[in-house]
Amino acid sequence: MAQGASLIYKEVRFMNKKRVRLIYFAALLIFSLEMILATKFTEPYPAILYPPFADIPLENSTVLKPTMLVFLSTGDSVEVLKKEIFYGLSNVKTNVILSENFTSEKSFIALKNNKRKLEATIGVKKAILSLESVSDSGEIKDGIAWTKQRLAETVGRDDIERLEVHWFSYKLSSNQEDPLLRDKLVEKFILTFN
Amino acid sequence: MSLIRKYTDRVIFSSFALSTEALGLYRIFYSCYLLIFGIPVVLWLDNFPSAFYNPPLLSLSGLFSNFPGFPFLLFISFLTCLLPVLLLFGYKTRLVSILLAFCILFEKSFAYSLGKIDHDFLMWMVPLILAFSNWGMAFSLDARYSQKDSSRSAQSWPVTLLALVLCLGMFSAGFPKLMGGWLDFSTQAVRGHFLREFYFNERQELLAPLLLSLDSPLLWEVLDYAGVLLECLFLFALVKPNLFRGFVLLAILFHVLNYLLLNISFSDNYILYMLFIDWKAVVPYLREKRVLARVKKSVSFRSISLLIGLQAFFFIFYLSTGYTALTLSPSKYLFEQVWDFSSLFLNGLIIVGGLLIALVNAVNFFRRKNFTPKLETTKST
């Protein structure tokens, strides 16, 4: 009887171990898939990944930096700090918000057209999973109104005509006296408030 | 085949075995870390329009078309703020751990829908995985009042799983560097990143200015190699727990260097690093100093009610400040808002504190290891 009980106990332990092994296998599988997704498409979330910093910034390699300029009805222009517009978010975060929404390629004022999707061919059929929400005109209007209001609050003026986000490329030189060289204006993103 | 299975089973089920007391103390450390250094909240998202909503690939927030409304953000933020208190006192530990993990994961999914993903997954992964280690069996209300919990035993496989997660994370950072040419002698990648951080992102504090004058390609190349080797070899250290602990110590030194030179702090990683200290030395030391008895005594419904009240009060205070902060953190509020210190200061305290704990622990471990054979020899003679 006691031996039988022990056998049942061992069986239960075995089942638990089997389940645990499966969890480990799943973790390895998920990690591999996430690595592929991060390399081929974009970084997924949640993910067991750390930032790779795999690139090697060489001398004369360029980096884009945005500058926000507000134009008033009087013709004057004022530079506004990203941190003030985006409620004190860090430099890195505000740069990402600007690059995701204030460029000609990725503009929040354009209707999104499901740019990001996963495609797989199963047999003869093609399956497409959309991974990006579609913004409607109402959201775009809200976004424009929000930007105007934030700019007005920051500058302290109501007569804002437009916002220009200037994307300058910068080069790093070996000159210790002046290591950061503003290279050229790569893009000018203009948001007009009427 | 059975040999491989036996070996992997040994690594998974017994290599990182911890006592119930060690797990209980670690649960207290984890909860205190969140309560002191910051519980993520998402009320600040209410300030942003849905036009900027850009959920990460495969995230939970991808199921929504825009940011949730204020009542939902308020609810999930408040719940996330209260759960660490329940976890601290070990009340319904398993359920609370899983709930806390999902709350943080849910919050982060929305927080990263502005485009930038931070790599702080350990914050939610630790409670999610350790929920199955029975870390609520000591110094907890569960242990005091629940009959069911006293029959459970400490499980070590979740600890090994967390070690594996850390190794995989490190590998995900090291492997692309290896493939990207970091080991090429003609390029100095760390120098390139250092200069980029220094001039473009204006990370010019602490020891960063000193490194500007370092013009030795050999030294920079050594740093390139050290980074890649540490991140890639971490995975292989998993086979020996003490070797893994050595790698954790190296990782802590690596983060200290990153902090001092690049002004980048991965302070949230310390949450997990502390799980791998030598608890066999810590638990008896704390018992001898009667700390364990005092901790056990302080676990009561009265203390939990008091702390929940305090936390609720602090949350209401946070609401009154306009809720722009990304975390509910008394220490951040004190250091950054009241005393006007840079955010680097508090992160520095965590990093240096973690380094000190790890170093003291390592020294103790080697002293113990050196003394043990002598004692055995004395016994045998």
Descriptive notes:
The complex is a heterodimer of chains A (194) and B (381). Chain A is of the alpha+beta class. Chain A is built from four helices and six strands; from the N terminus they run αββααββαββ. Chain A has helices at residues 2-40, 82-85, 91-101, 137-155, and strands at 62-72, 77-80, 117-122, 125-130, 160-172, 180-192. In chain A, a hairpin with a 7-residue loop joins strand 5 (160-172) and strand 6 (180-192). Residues 4-9 of chain A have low confidence and may be disordered. In chain B, helix 3 (70-88) packs antiparallel against helix 16, helix 4 (93-111) runs antiparallel to helix 5 and helix 8 (157-179) runs antiparallel to helix 11. Chain B has a domain at 18-155 and 299-328. Chain B has a two-stranded antiparallel ribbon. Chains A and B meet through helix 1, helix 3 and helix 4 of A and helix 1, helix 4, helix 8 and helix 9 of B.
The whole-angstrom Rg of chain A is 26 Å
**Strand order in the sheet with the most strands of chain A:** 2-1-5-6
Judged by helices, strands and strand pairing, the structural class of chain A is alpha+beta
Helix content of chain B: 55-70%
Strand content of chain A: 25-35%
Kindly report how far apart the N and C termini of chain A lie.
87 Å
How many separate helices of chain B?
Answer: 18
Number of domains of chain A: 2
Q: Record the strand order, biggest sheet of chain B.
A: 1-2
- Which pair of chains forms the biggest interface, and how many residues does each contribute? A-B, 64 and 63 residues
Mean pLDDT of chain A: 83
Overall 3D shape of chain A: extended
State the order of secondary-structure elements of chain A, H for helix, E for strand: HEEHHEEHEE
End-to-end separation of chain B: 43 Å
Number of strands of chain B: 2
Low-confidence stretches of chain A: 4-9
Helix content of chain A: 25-40%
Can you write the helix and strand succession of chain B as a string? HHEHHHHHHHHHHHHHHEHH
Count the E strands of chain A.
6
Structural class of chain B: mainly alpha
